[in-house]
Predict the structure of Phosphoacetylglucosamine mutase.
Amino acid sequence: MSNLPIENIRSFSDAHPKPSALHFQYGTAGFRTLGSTLDSVIFRVGILAGLRSKRLDGRTIGVMVTASHNPEEDNGVKLVDPRGEMLEASWEAHATVVANAPTTDALLEALDALVKTAKIDLSKPARVVYARDTRPSGPALISALEDGFKALGVEARDGGVTTTPILHYLVKAINTKGTKESYGEDSEDGYYTKLSGAFKKLIAGKTKPDPLIIDCANGVGASAAAKLATYLGDSLPLILENTDITTPGVLNHACGADYVKTQQKLPPSLIDRLQPGQRACSLDGDADRLMYYYLDERGQFHMLDGDKIAALVAAFIVELVKLAGLESDVKVGVVQTAYANGASTKYLAERLPVKCVPTGVKHLHHAAEHYDIGVYFEANGHGTVLFSQQTQETFAKYEPSTPAQSTALNHLINLTQLINQTVGDALSDMLLVEVVLTHKSYAGAEWNSLYADLPNRLVKVVVSDRNTFKTEDAERRLVSPPGLQAKINELVLRYEGGRSFVRPSGTEDVVRVYAEAALKSQADELAFRVAGLVYDEAGGDPSKRPSEFLP
Ligand code: G16
């Protein structure tokens, strides 16, 4: 067993000191905070990624530098495990310890302890592929990351400026190259070719879709969508909006999937662009979330969020499985979180098994793996569909007995190619939605009428310490601060169809409050009253109440 290159790590680490006053936490989607404070964290993540690769026998680990839907001044980093999925949970704690070692000596001790507890054979190779989004703080943070690679001696491949889901795709493609589970060419070209090829097969012979407007959130999705458009040709005409990746301050600002979901309205930049009946969608800053919407003939805005996507897609897949004659072999299930609209849960649960898990793609992904075909979507538009290895083998071996069965089977096989099964992927999900709409001849209105959303409201509350908020039952109940849940329950009872829950965010320094009720005004009132309770409990400054509640 070789040793850690102590002196090398020491000299690099001294150039990336940890800010003494800050504590970092590997949260819902990695480390995420102000980009200007992340230099030491990202450097250390470089070393950590290398150690994770050594632990897994030199398999390639992914590192993505992004803060996704967060404002432009934030940045972050997440690690991707070899099959393209999120970092294994036990290593999140290791990452937090390593990121918080106060000095270089303490860092060396933490790394040494990690090597021992995780039984890492340091003689194994370390391989990493990394990428970043378009944030201005990205280049400097990438150079800190590269110092981390140099400090440990990592064989690193630069994925450049790209979307989070493309980085996940690359990780899986690299690690499955030349095996029977090969995921595709390990390049961006491989990704676009795979998705666009499957899309064209799935809509062959159908009426060509009308042009689709994409709000690219002024982020990396703009260049990815432009590239995808060239591979799609005229099979799906795309109109790209909010594609400014150079003007400071515009990323995710008054546009993008998070804006649409939380404001429940059209990005102002689309007001004169979107015609009644036309489909449009928004990506977020790293293109892993997707929100659809349309205006009706009266110009009224209608949002088709992650729950509506799950309903559309799950119903389509169930129908194909049935048409293929596979319903007794292949079971489809859905995974949601507490944010799922109550009406969507009701609609889905009447048709399929539905499970509720805590927020965070990693939780949904793992739960979805328990189904033959697992459809998971967060209401915020983050999700995908997983086909188990066994299901994919069933498709490959199955001999259909009628032409109709054969067609349905081919569609299912093409869906396994169209869908990015590593993680939620806005572009892949967008193609999936377009396939279903094309097959069903649905416009936005027909899709929207699958069920009627219960009015709901999401608000953020700034508190002094969000870590005092602890939850249970898939985040549907607060256990701390003590007594607060009882007060929320009491309030909820006063609203028809009322439901509300409170949880600390894992990506922003806020507590989130969700409420729904039979009427919009009631959902708003309930959300703000629960937010008021949270604010009072958390010792907020009374002079700032309630204007501190951000939408
Ligand atoms: C990330 C996670 C999502 C999660 C979201 C909000 O999204 O990947 O699973 O729903 O954060 O999490 P929280 O409410 O804990 O802040 P993204 O798109 O920002 O990577």
